[in-house]
Every structure is written in structure tokens, then in C-alpha cells.
Amino acid sequence: xxxxxxxxxxxxxxxxxxxxxxxLMQNNLIKKFIGxxxxxxxxxxxxxxxxxxxxxxxxxLTDGVVDxxxxxxxxxxxxxxxxxxxxVSVTAFSLALVQRLYxxxxxxxxxxxxxxxxxxxxx
Amino acid sequence: MQIEWIFLIFLLASAIGVxxxxxxxxxxxxxxxxxxxxxxxxxxxxxxxxxxxQAAVGAGVDSILFFLTLKKVHALxxxxxx
Amino acid sequence: xxxxxNALQKLKQWIDGEITFFDAEESISRQQKKQxxxxxxxxxxxxxxxxxxxxxxxxxxGVAAIIILALLxxxxxxxxxxxxxxxxxxxxxxxxxxxxxxxxxxxxFVAGMILDYRAFDTFxxxxxxxxxxxxxxxxxQxxxxxxxxxxxxxxxxxxxxxxxxGKVLIRCAGKYLSPLVMLYGIYVILNGHLSPxxxxxxxxxxxxxxxxxxxxxxxxxxxxxFTMKTFTIIxxxxxxxxxxxxxxxxxxxxxHVGASVPKGIPGMILSSGFILPLNICVGxxxxxxxxxxxxxxxxxEI
Lengths: 123, 82, 302
Known about the structure:
The complex is a heterotrimer.
Chain A: H1 7-25, H2 29-51, H3 74-105, H4 110-122
Helix pairs in contact in A: 1-2, 2-3
Chain B: H1 3-20, H2 24-44, H3 48-72
Helix pairs in contact in B: 1-2, 2-3
Chain C: H1 2-16, H2 24-37, H3 43-47, H4 53-77, H5 91-98, H6 100-104, H7 109-117, H8 119-140, H9 149-163, H10 168-190, H11 199-222, H12 228-246, H13 248-251, H14 275-298
Helix pairs in contact in C: 7-8, 8-12, 8-14, 10-11, 11-14, 12-14
């Protein structure tokens, strides 16, 4: 079984599933976006776990050793670093949208918002 | 049993806690906690860059934005003494 | 047969001049009717066949379970965690690490990667941050359309709360803590090519320090040195400087050939070519973005 050795990836997948369930089943919009954030971090955890190599150190020059077999893989770290900051801007944008929705409908419940918008259309 | 397992289990527990808890204020606090634990997990994966960024962004700015939104939608009743 | 007869009769009538085949008014009104009756299938119509919540929940759980199980099955087949023979550790990584120091001059290989080999990626990302702030400004800026008396009153209450002298603890924390936080953030930005950190993390730390200051001393005091104008000037200048710095590799024949930027001694603070100025640019953009989000979310203006 590779699953017991790839436990970081397995935990990342389970976290992804939890975030996905949040997105699908929560009624509250803020909880939906927390679920989206959890999905984000789960993906980053998966990427970083792929780059890790046992017994090697972080990709910063130490003791003057310039050898690829001494450091872990720096590519996932670079990708995730940009991803984390982008996820903040996505969160801020979506929360701004949530505030505007609250101003218009007066609620954060997704079902209520759908019902109110449907009533507004039929009138 | 390695110490990483403890943090991973905490991670899963806080992710489930966010989904289960009813109070929005508590949910955001648990999410903050989740981000802080994630920052420690990055250190186990030998990525200090990510740890610093996650601690500053996930536990700091992200949760501030969530709290401000909660305040704007009046979900924080009783947290301030008038 | 009947239709044919009708057609013949109509033809006769037309020849006699009793009816006209092409009636302008009628065709126009018919077209208008068509336009009125034609509409896209609306979401609300689809929604009329309501599914019960329990069925929806079951369906969601099924979909999520299928996705999780499929992904776990894939993880089961992936190369082992921490194995050095992982195909992701290919010659790209060797190149980045083994010739990274002489090509970029940065000790932190991650900084050398994201700000030298893949600098345009980071440039696009800085633009994403800028665009996000612009979108939030569009959504939340104070104006007549999204602003009513209730919110005015809430903001006035907040200002009164700011003025109250009861916030001893947070004032004290803001006074002594926020300079330290900002100093640490500036250290992280300036040492981006020598130690973990860099523009993104340092910028968010400085932004958090600014937020702490703003919480402690109120928005009015913050506006004495940080307004929308300073925000725009800093952001646009940093983006332009970044663009100009990174375009040198195009003008000098791509891939740094013939670029005469001194690399310096690896390990010194003034080394590694353009990485230090680029880190400062990114840090300032991220700082402005973080503080801008906070300020727009609280007061609706920067």
C-alpha cells in the first residue's frame, strides 16, 4: 500500500474533499468561501508534499554545497508561494461580493437569496 | 507515531470543525487555527518560505478580512461593549 | 388541395387588388411579437422543478465520495513520498540548483527561481493583486449607489469608538508592536535573496503592521500619510519599475546573454542583480494591497 507512505497526499485529498463538501452543502456564503480556502490549502499541501525528499534540507545554500542531491525540489515551493497570495485576492474579491449581496438581499443564506431573486423575477 | 501525524490530525479535525460548527464567529476562529497549523506543517515539509507566507497571509490578513465581513453583515452581535 | 385553392383565390384577389401579400405594419408587429415571446431559458424556470433537499444532499455526498475515492486511488499509484527517484526531481531542478548561484546570484533558490527564471510569472501575479484591489474598489467604494443612512451611522459610531480613550491596551500594542512588526517585514523583504521570505511574505507582514496601526489609531490618522493617491502612485510605479527591470532580458537578446548587471558576491546584501529591487517592488505592491483591502472593507475608501 502506497497510501500509508503517501500520507501527506492522502490527508491533502481528504481536506480537498471536506472543502468540496463545504462548497456544495453549506447554505451560508461565508462558510462556502471558507471551504474554498480549505480546498486551496489542500492543493498546496499536495504540491509541496510532491516536492519533498527525505533527508534533504530546504533550498537555501548551506555550507557552500552546490549539489542538487543535497536540497529538496524548489519548484513546488515557488508555485505555491504565488498561489497563496493569489488565493488572498480571490478571497477578498469574493467577500466584497458577499457584502454587496448582503446589502441587496439582507441575508447570507443561499436558499433565501435564490428564493428572493426568483420572486423578484416573477414580479 | 511521528509528531507530523499529530499536526495532520489536528488539521483534519479543524477542517471538519469549520464545517460542523454553527456560529460564524467560531468558524472563522477555527479557520485561523487551521491556517496556523498549516504554517507549521510547511516547516515539516522543509519550505520555510511557505511557512512565513502562510502565517502572515492565512492566519493574519485572511481572517481579518473574514472578521470585517462578519461585522458588515451584522453577525458579530454582542462582541463589543457599547 | 384546400391550401392550393386558397392560394389560387388569394392570387386572384391580389391581382384584383383586394389584398396585399406584403404588409409592412403586420410584419413589423409580428417581428416584435417574436422578440417578446423569445427569451433565453431562465434559471428560474429550470429551478421550478424543485428537488428535495435530502435528495440533493445525497447526490452531493455521492459526487464527493466518488471524487475522493478516485483521487485516493490515484495517490495510491503515485511515487512514494520522499523518494529521490521521483520523476518530479528532473534535470530542471538540477539546473536551478547547480547553476542557480552563478546565473542569478541568489542564495535562496526559491527567490532566484521566482524572481529571475520565472520573473514574468511573478509580474503577472502582481498584476492580479492590483486587479483584485481595483475590483474591490469598484464593489465597495463609498458612493450614493451602495451607501445608505444606516451605514453612515455605523461608520460614525466606529469613529466615535476610535476617539474614545478607553482602548488603552490596543493603543499600547499599536504603539510598541506595529513598528517592530513593520521592521521585521522590511527585514524579510530586503533579505529575500539570502534567507526564507521575500516580497510576498514580507509585504503581507508590513501590511499587517499597517493594519495594526490603523486599528489602534483610527482611520483619520492613517490618512495623513496613506491616501488613495499615494496608493495609486506606489502601485503603478512599482509595477512599471518591475516591468522595466524585467524587460532587459528581452532587449539584451533574451536569456540574460550579454546582460551586464553585476551579480555581486553571493551572500552579500547588495548582490544577485535585479532580485533585490524586484523584491522591494513586489513587497510594496503586496503591502499596499493588504492595507487597501482592510481599508476598503472597513471604511469604503483608502
